[in-house]
Amino acid sequence: MARNKKRGAAAPAAAAEGPQPAAAAANAEVAAAPEDLVLRPPNLRVAFAAMALFLAPFSYLAFVHYPLDADLRRSILICGAISLGGFFVVLRLIPVAARYLHRRKLFGKDINKKGLPTGEIDVPEALGIVVGIVYLVIAILFQQFNFAADSIWLVEYNAALASVCFMILLGFIDDVLDIPWRVKLLLPGIAALPLLMAYAGGTSIIIPKPLASYVGVEVLELGGLYKVFMLLLAVFCTNSINIHAGLNGLEVGQTVVISAAVLVHNVMRIGSSKDLETQQAHAFSIYLVLPFLTTSLALLGFNWYPSSVFVGDTYTYFAGMTLAVVGILGHFSETLLLFFLPQVLNFLCSVPQLFKFVYCPRHRLPSFDTQTGLLTGSKDGNLVNIFLRLFGKCSEKSLCIRLLIFQALSCLFCFWLRYMLTGWYK
Fold first, then answer.
1. What b/e string do you get for 262-290 counting C-beta neighbours within 10 Å, with b at 16 or more?
2. 206 DSSP β-pair partners
3. pTM score, two decimals?
4. Which of 42, 70, 222, 342 could make an S-S bridge to 226, C-beta 3.0–4.6 Å?
């Protein structure tokens, strides 16, 4: 999502001369408003192909491979049906929201197409707000079908939704006000407060078997430090997705891959565990991540190359917080960090620039050759440019696909590593 933000609303020059009649002011506003935006149709081929690719393994494991409880399967089907409805709602609402955002001058230019006619098109920004709102509605409606009024999960479930809602709001504020980086780092910590205050789960960690003899205990109680870890995880997930960006489809694509891996991990843990609390925690995680995946796929249809909308910090913050909440309440924070391996590497490579040890431009993007249509890596320390320096120049679409393949391979590596270390590590 490489973009150059444009803001502004010109004040009427006649305002200094005195009040205008209401009708004249309304006519002036209409005359000054930009023409209604007409978006390109979404790339449904990509959206449906990704849906089939990423939901097929989960569906097979949940309904064929593992003998899951009938009530759990019913809940998953209900959640899936509502989530699929959310997919079509997002497809319908994005063009509507894009027109409103465009009228309010919340749009940008695609920097990776600078010098081409497509680089001069106003691309509506912050369309993650649509996905976030639809996601919250789905998650709230699902409570009616799954949770009893006295369910012990309701408090944490609603606290999780409150944190996600708070993050959507702060992300949209960032898109509108263009908040400095030092402030952006604090936003996820603020949004995570409802979850931290309501969290009543375990605060202990299992010490890896090779280290247990050195620590002296097999289970270490962290107490309040565990909530500090939760806070740091939320801050990392939101900001790591936000800085692993710059290409059409990359922000949404990486979160789609991660959420699909989370779904598969959850159903595998449910199928292999005999502990009821563990099964409930992972089922809880499924209910939160399934609507996130489907609504994000609808956004991907519009954001795939060539993007007709930009997702904005609204989406990256919303996505990061949602995945952090899913990992925390599902009790698989370590596995979640392994799914985030590309984001971890990108963050480590970005540290010198993020903390101003070396010069950091506003947009750490590759250079675009208008003659060939290819991107060339700059010296900036992020995965986008590192991939170009390692594998050579290529088109924006090809680079995005390479990075998403790397994301998928990282998730597969996580599953392989868990399999190899089972029984030895923990």
1. bbbbbbbbbeeeeeeebbebbbbbbbbbb
2. 219
3. 0.89
4. 222
